[in-house]
Each structure stands twice: as structure tokens, then as C-alpha cells.
Amino acid sequence: MKRLFGLLIIGLLLMPIEAKAFTVTFYQRNDTQTINSQLGYILSDTQSTGGALYWQQNAVLDADVDINWDVVIRHLDGSETSIDTGVANYHNPASDGEWSATWSCPGATMVATDALKITGNITTVDGTTSRIFITEQLGWGGLNASTWTFYFAFTKGMLSPPPNTVWGNRVYHGDTTTDTRIEGIDYNLASGSYAFIMD
């Protein structure tokens, strides 16, 4: 009788994960990893400490700048499926500090060995600098349609002093004071996975 009761409890608590959606925030850390043959900075649900940055120069201090992101699924064999490019574009942040922009993720099918690859881009008239961030293999069955909010820590100013003055724009990431992150990522886990669901 006790065994039967235990099995009933387990049956109530262990629900197929594909039937329930989850939401996660991913932080752009300052350490790196190689996943599915792609080297990148770690994209994870925990933040690192220490901070890092990437930058793109400008011809003049107040030249136009765009900050945006490419969203890709990276497969086990190293191939990729692009979901969208240049998303959550922020044109000309007015000052130093934290800024944000949103993107409507249309949803996408995934398999358990896939990873998410997010590439941050800083674009000026002088070119584009990009930085790759990649998750571990996620065990997800897919992304759901949802609104993602991209937060980034930004500064602009002098990169090198006179007489060879270079101006530039910087995006920081990797700790709680430069808390560059993506909120609102909605997903389902891969088919056949189970977890304790208490509601």
C-alpha cells in the first residue's frame, strides 16, 4: 500500500516538461567556452564577476552608432539555423549607462543538443565589431513566441588621446555592475524529459 501511494505521488509530481513553458534570463558572462564547435563568451542563467567589454571606433565622438544582436541556434554538427539578425536595435544611446530594447521572438524548434548563440554587434560608419555569446547544450525542445528584452551597459568617449585621437563606443558585460543580459526567453524542454512540477 505504501509503495502504491508513493507511485501515485510520483505520478502526480513528475509531469512531462514539454507540456509546460519556462522562462529564463541569460547573462552575458566574461568567461568563455566551446560548445558545438563554437568558441564564445558564456551565455548563462548566472552572472560572472570581473567584467569585460568590446568596442567599435568612431571618426568623431557623436557619430551614429547602432547596438543590436543576431540570434542563432547552433547545432551539434556545427551548422546553424538563424532565427533573426540585427534584432533589438538601439540607435544612438544618448549617454553612458544601461539601455534596453525588445525583440519579438517568433519561436523555433530545437533538439536537446542545440545551443543558443547570440552575437552582439556595435556598428558605426567605421565598421562593425561583434562578440559571440553561446549557451551550453540546453536540452530544449524549442523556443516559444515571446518578447525578449536585451539590456546592455554602454559608454562612448575617447579610446586614445591626442594627437592620434580615436573615439569609440563600448558595450560592457560580465558582472552585476555591467549587467548585460536577455530577459523573457520562453522555452519548452526536449520531448521525453521530466521534472518535478509542484503546481
Structure description:
The chain has one helix at residues 2-13, and strands at residues 14-16, 22-35, 38-44, 52-58, 66-74, 80-91, 97-105, 108-109, 115-124, 127-134, 140-143, 146-160, 166-173, 181-189, 194-196. The protein is mainly beta and 199 residues long. The chain has one domain. Strands 2, 3, 4, 5, 6, 7, 8, 9, 10, 11, 12, 13 and 14 form a 13-stranded mixed beta sheet that branches. It is elongated. Residues 1-15 and 195-199 have low confidence and may be disordered.
Question: Features of this protein?
Answer:
1 helix, elongated, 13-stranded mixed β-sheet, mainly beta, disordered C terminus, 6% helix, single chain, 60% strand, 15 strands, 199 residues, disordered N terminus, two-stranded antiparallel ribbon
Instruction: Write down the secondary-structure element order.
Output: HEEEEEEEEEEEEEEE
* Termini gap: 25 Å
Number of E-state strands = 15
Main sheet, how many strands, which sense, barrel? 13 strands, mixed
Mean pLDDT score, rounded? 87
**Total tally of structural domains:** 1
Shape: elongated
Number of helices: 1
Uncertain segments are 1-15, 195-199
Share of residues in strands? over 45%
Helicity range: under 10%
Which structural category do the helix and sheet elements fall into? Answer: mainly beta
Q: Measured on Cα atoms, how large is the radius of gyration?
A: 20 Å
In short:
The chain has 199 residues and is mostly beta strands.
